[in-house]
User: Fold NAD(P)/FAD-dependent oxidoreductase from Microbacterium pullorum.
Amino acid sequence: MTDHVEVAIVGAGFAGLGMAIALRRAGRGSFAILERAASVGGTWRDNTYPGVACDVPSHLYGFATHPNPHWSGLFATGAEIHRYLEHVADVEDLGDRLRLSTPLLAARWDATASRWHIDTPSGALTAEVLVLACGRLTEPSIPEIPGLEQFAGPIFHSARWDHATDLSGAHVAVVGTGASAVQLVPRLAETAAHVTLFQRTPAWIVPRGEHPYDDAERDRFATHPEELAALRAALYVEGEARYASRSGDAAASAAAREVALTHLANHVADPALRRALTPDYAFGCKRVLLSDDFYPAVASPAVTLEPSALAAVAGTELVAASGARYTADALVLATGFVSQRQPYAELVTGERGETLAEHWAGGMTSFASTVVSDFPNMFVLDGPNASLGHNSSVLMLEEQAAYAVRALVQRAAASDGVLRVHPDAEADYTAEIARAAATTPWLTGGCRNWYVDRGRLTLLWPGTVDAFRARLARTDGSEFMTTPARRGGEERRPA
Assistant:
């Protein structure tokens, strides 16, 4: 007999656990969480490279229902966040709902039974509702570089760190200067014989301003939860204020740019190196990075910056796009993730026989950054236009989960128990996003970024968290059709 639940959640990182918490709070207990790995944690379980940490303040990077007074500092380490998520799963008593080491193999909508049929290695299950909480920083992006697979030494992606390989005393090459590289390069520089850093595009980097919390501060947070709540509120306001500089406000962007340039000048004395590390695109066009030790590391004798991409590999020789050649004992790919083309989308088939990947062939689209036409009773967390470049993404996930729970109440009142997003609603929301993003640096700032796909902003929400909350609060259920879609024609939404 096939197992059945009301809600099947795919993924046990922040998004999946956040959805489970929302369901529990709403009194909906029939759900299962499918997780491909052996523990919860998502990206914070998978990323274990030296120096891995969050660049969102720790007291804002957690669930509102699960404040943690014990964070070690203003910015939590990756291991701490992983332990936090394991703690949340324990406190929420999700053990019997978690199906670990159970990857999604396929999910298809069964129109006859009005439910999702889900295949896993341990068997099939059905669910009335499917929640994709698979994240966007899960599948490493491996660049296509001639000869890369024939590199003579150890080679691995930063998100699949090989702890069995001892890099101390080795000549290590790092490809990429994004968020992961900015954290791991200073750590490698401390132990490696030398680090060669291949930089395709420099990043805007501002001071991190790390602040460790001492025992007295952590005790006070634990015994005075109102102080912890006040700190979280203050950090939230600070984060919302950062939106202006990231989104192109002239004065705010100029001020932030000056902070970044001063930070660079304070740590890099060599004018040629400083020029190589100075972006030539608008502040905010790419992800703004936080670091206090990256520039000092790159300016030190321990690191050589190659200001061009890795173009080819021949044995242990690395050929840069500039023509420069280097040798290395080991190669670390800090090259980001497959974020614009969500890998799970190929596994999900909607009511018209189209996969989610096919539906998103021209770039991800949705309504409310959460639901997709032709995929009934399905919710996507941290998918289209649900990411942030200025504040905590956990805040967005919580709003999406709350929207999903409200929709489930509406589903219960539907005659056939099916929520079908009207294509017009998805098209209108996509156009709304396009209008809001049209003049932002993400589209006009002169850089190539992972927020944009085929000329559209598909990953970032072009607004504040307050604006996202307000937008979801305005949804009234009219985005859903009252009768099933018909081939050859669609029901029109009421004007």
Observations:
- Residues 148-204+249-333 form a domain with the FAD/NAD(P)-binding domain fold (CATH 3.50.50.60).
- The radius of gyration is 23 Å.
- The CA atoms of residues 152 and 315 lie 5 Å apart.
- The chain has 14 helices and 22 strands.
